[in-house]
Amino acid sequence: MVRRNTRAVGNAAENFAFQFLKRKGLIPVRRNFQCRLGELDLIMQDGRCLVIVEVRFRGSNSFVTAGLTIDKRKQRKLIRTTAMFLAWNAQFANRPVRFDVVGIDTDARGNQSIDWIKDAFRPNDASL
């Protein structure tokens, strides 16, 4: 069996999540925002709310679901990277911000399931 490139798998998971969220009515703002603090996978709009989406993928041999893999350290990193995005994109500065996680899990047969966790964490949760 040929093992696929990790980045290609990540891109496929992000594309799957992106299309899923668009079908749910979210409007794309930006993909893969990067700065010295980190990366934001997807930035979308849900009404006036700016939604920061962390996409997590887990294969069939994983013991936990993808959505449960965001620890406090990762939350802090996402929050700080979001602050940088907002500093560079003033048009979004006064909007409410929500942090969502989209977990994509694959079973032994290769079937994928998606778990959208809205408002997965808040800045106060990460103990900045």
Provide a compact summary of the structure.
27% of the residues lie in helices and 38% in strands. It is α+β, with helices and mostly antiparallel strands. The longest helix is centred in the first third of the chain and has 18 residues, at 6-23.
Fraction in helix: 25-40%
Instruction: For the record, give the distance between the C-alpha atoms at the N and C termini, rounded to a whole number.
Output: 44 Å
Order of helices and strands: HEEEHEE
What is the gyration radius calculated from CA atoms?
Answer: 15 Å
| Largest sheet properties | 5 strands, mixed
Overall mean confidence score, pLDDT: 86
Low-confidence stretches: none
- Give the class-level CATH name: Alpha Beta
Q: What is the CATH topology classification name?
A: Trna Endonuclease, Chain: A, domain 1
CATH architecture: 3-Layer(aba) Sandwich
Write out the strand line-up for the largest beta sheet, numbering strands in chain order.
1-2-3-4-5
What count of domains describes the coordinates?
Answer: 1
| Strand segment tally | 5
Treating each run of at least 4 consecutive H or I residues as one helix, how many helices?
2
